[in-house]
Request: fold
Amino acid sequence: MLQQTINGIALGATYALLGLGVTLIWGVLRVMNFAFGQFITWGAFGCLVAIEDGVPIWLSVLIGMAVGGLLAVVVDATVIAYMRRRRSSEFALVVATIGVSYLLSSIAQDRTDSQIRPFPSQDFPDGVINLGSVQIPELQLMSLAIAAVMMVGLALWLNTTKSGRALRTVSWSVSTAELLGVRSRSIFAIAVFISGALAAIAGICIFAETATISYSSGDALLVVAFAVIVLGGMGSVAGAVIGGLILGLAQVYTTAYISNTFSQAVGYIVILLILIVRPSGIFGSQEEQRV
Amino acid sequence: MTAAQVEVEHLSRRFGGVLAVDDVSFAIEPGTVTGIIGPNGAGKTTLLNLITGFAVPTSGRVRIAGRDLTGKRPYVLARAGVARTYQNLLLLEDETVTENIRIGRHLVDRRRLRRHRADDQRPAQVVAGLVDELGLTEVAAAPVASLPYGLRRRVEIARALATNPAVLILDEPTAGMTRDESDDIASVVRQVRDRGCTVLLVEHNIRLVTVICDEVLVLNWGRLIGRETAAKVWELDAVQVAYLGKKPNDLGQQPDDSEVGGSAHSE
Amino acid sequence: MFNWLDPYSQFVGVSLLVNVLLVLSLFVAFQCGVLSLASVGFAADGAFTAALLNMKEGWSPALSIAAGALAAGLLALVFGRLILHLRGIYLALGSFALGQVCVLVIADLSFTGGNQGIIGIPTSVGLTTAAVVVVVVCALLQILHQSRTGRALRAMRLDDRVAAGVGVNTPAYRAWAFAASGVIAGLAGALGAFSTVTISPGQYDFTLLVQILAMAMIGGAYHWSGGVIAALVIGIIQQDLGQVAPLVQGLLYGGLLVVVMMLLPEGIVDRRGIRWIRGHLPGSRGTRQAIAALQSAGGQ
Reply:
């Protein structure tokens, strides 16, 4: 049980990264971007290709993050920005991102010939640390460490730096921010880039553990990302972290104690339960609807 | 239409630390026209929202024709014969004037009526009648979004009338209208009252209120601070202080035309 | 009736009409503002219910299909109460999750055949049957469109509060629209099951959802004909392209979806477009002049 808990926490930390990526976008841009799953996939593939080309591991990871971030920025600057200018409805935007996701997924499917590729986990730490009755794979420690560093870094950035504070202002009110001299378009781009990079690093950590990757790997994680922010509350950073941990634990426990197929449904079930019971999530604000 | 009365008992609505409506009680007789006046922020629209189901009271009761409809959803109130217009206008922007009014017939258009419906009760006729009555004939086929403010208000009033209400609630119906336009609205309200409908209207135009209302309720800071016949409403100390900014020692004087923007005494 | 077509074309025709029904199931919800992405799951429920009733309980195909449709509708009615109070994209997300859970549950149960699904369903549905069903559904939708209920549903989509204010029981209408969406989706799934002989949970996947979503969005939420036309045209084009690589499919549906959402979010049967046409027909000059006069006189 303790073993599972530790596994769950490690997984949960990477899930928290996914949640942070989505919540960053939602908080600033009010977009539920279904293409996020593709940022995960493409970012991880970027890392994979770099590794296969002989690039040192740490640089490959950074390259992967850059790929994820850049892809996110491209999607945002083209489709999403256009629709925001046109003041499209939220639903139209979501549907458009579904289309983008499908498009990118098909390209990935084509380039990989629908094959499942091995993710080179041998390049990642593969030792095991023994702590009493518990075994902690070094890989999981690494994921946990990376996730922790990312979260702390994000929190510091948001709270101390000029651009980070600008982003918080923009997420509160775009017009106010612009009155204060914030160039909202560059802030949007920064936020989008970070979210894509977070998607990539989370994906890399998870795929390094499962040792496989395919064109559809990111889509499965997309559900997890949405479940995390629905659980934690849309737009809440603390919610993303806690939601991620809870979901990671839930996933690990269901795989261990119920069934493998059922664990696939965990994300969806969490989404449904939270939306039914408390749509605002743990840390979100209540919305009143009266009709 | 059955006779209706509106009864409100110790109605309160709290938002966080603020009491938007504070222990308001009144009863309105059927077939009367009652005005609700008060400064901005006095809680008038919140009160209307509580009566029409768009907000749930924190405490108190709302009764329509004796039925307790406290906290019921808007459509329940609508089915009880309560129709309203909205301070910020609620229209189907891309639809035409006619279509916007037509949707008001939803409750009336029940299938069983079809066989018994006399010719002048056919939806198209009724809607056309309302269009004419509210002076919208020329723009009946225009999308509402293209109309100026005063006409948009009239479309909303026509839609409310289309529901054959027993209680008609108007939230600042003459905002943004010229003197002639508001006189037109006044005569519409009189006709509606003559048909037996009970009218409640929130207004800032005191001249209009004194012209068409039988009684006036005065609200400030969420409380009901006065209730008076229309003719005597200016004599209320509370009104003088709230509307004319008079200091308590200056009370007792009638306002002149320059302060109110129109004659306070009318036929 | 369609015997002049070769059997393969008839088979393709049935799957085309099944897609039309799926698009109509999305439409029924969209027309009143319910952004439901659950139809794929309901289709799976209808398909598996019908197949199991026929193969394990010996029900006739017709009865099984009807039961499958009703079962899906019932599911929609029950679960609808839980999620229909949500607004906009939360509802979309919730309904998406609901649909996926339906499929995953089917995949996880042993008596539904697990991941393998069910094979050996009798081929009882031919092109004639499918066509009749589609025509009947369209006729019902047209009757709905012209009725007072249809008007109320369309008003709900434009502004919930307006509809509620004139007495429309919006929660009830939403629930029934969602249930109807479930019934039509279940019907589609059940018909498909008795045509394709095998069904597996994997076929009710995200790809299918994207395809029917694209067709439904192109068709628009105003009138059922938009989605039908979109489904038929796109389906026929896809057939003509033959066995297409996933890349081409992705570019077609994904790209189409993006372009349509960007340029024509209301779909091809666009209310504004119709009004523009009506506004420029002979006889409307009076209205246009009146508006112009008002706008230059008083401003907005």
Q: What stands out?
A: The beta strands of chain B are 6-15, 18-28, 33-37, 59-64, 67-68, 82-84, 167-171, 198-202, 215-220, 223-229. Chain B is about 30% helix and 20% strand.
